[in-house]
Write a structure and sequence with these properties.
One of its GO terms (molecular function) is GTPase activator activity. The protein is an alpha+beta fold and about 220 residues long. It has eight helices and six strands. Among the domains are: about 60 residues, no CATH class; about 90 residues, Rossmann fold (3-Layer(aba) Sandwich).
């Protein structure tokens, strides 16, 4: 008899476990009234009604004590996120935490300042936001062959001057010029070109007042 009761209990529990799970608070009706979950308590099997432990009074008490219905706005429950998206969200939170902890120097490694920190900061301040170039433009007159005479030219031909005028904007190196100076001294006038990611300064030999020393220090001459 005892084994039979135990078998009935097991079957009853398996039957309850096989039922689909429902939320404890189910919203129904037009006004969104929340149903009482105690109204759907599972009934005991008839074979257990003669159980030596009488629980009918407690069961009757639970069924008679009805809760007051409450209303709440209807909510749309979104579908559960996929495992991949939840994993990505976890990784993102972990990376954000690591970044915050590193910024606050909570890790021992971030508390140590390297010896080259000051030098790196100084180099960072000197780093340009755009790629910079300097290009030498040399005028060679007819019959000139030596380096000194070529770099000493203070004026060029009309064709050369027209070519130089199309290289870029004519700027004067100094406080009013906020771009790349290409190593030219203050007061020098030179063609300058800039785009979103590039700056170019043209070192024109005829625009350096024929100064061989200035041109030699600021450019690397290439003869072709």
């Amino acid at each position: 008899m005892t084994r039979r009761k135990a078998k009935c209990v097991n079957m009853w529990l398996r039957k309850l476990a096989s039922r689909p799970r429902k939320a404890s608070c189910i919203e129904s009706g037009i006004k969104g009234t929340i149903e009482d979950p105690f109204e759907k308590l599972p009934q005991l099997p008839r074979t257990l009604e003669a159980d030596p432990i009488d629980c009918s009074d407690m069961y009757f008490f639970i069924q008679q004590n009805r809760r007051l219905a409450t209303t709440s706005p209807l909510r749309r429950h979104s579908k559960p996120a996929k495992s991949s998206s939840s994993h990505a969200a976890t990784e993102e939170k972990y990376i954000l935490w690591r970044s915050l902890a590193a910024d606050l120097r909570l890790f021992p490694g971030t508390r140590q300042i390297p010896q080259s920190f000051s030098r790196d900061v100084r180099h960072l301040d000197q780093t340009y936001s755009r790629e910079v170039h300097k290009v030498a433009v040399i005028y060679v007159a007819k019959g000139q062959e030596d380096k000194v005479s070529v770099l000493s030219n203070s004026f060029g031909s009309d064709a050369f001057n027209e070519f130089v005028s199309h290289l870029g904007w004519r700027v004067e190196i100094g406080r009013q010029h906020h771009g790349y100076n290409g190593g030219l001294p203050s007061g020098a006038v030179t063609p300058y070109y800039a785009s979103a990611d590039t700056e170019i300064v043209f070192h024109v030999s005829t625009m350096l007042d024929g100064s061989l020393s200035v041109f030699a220090l600021t450019t690397r001459s290439v003869f072709t």
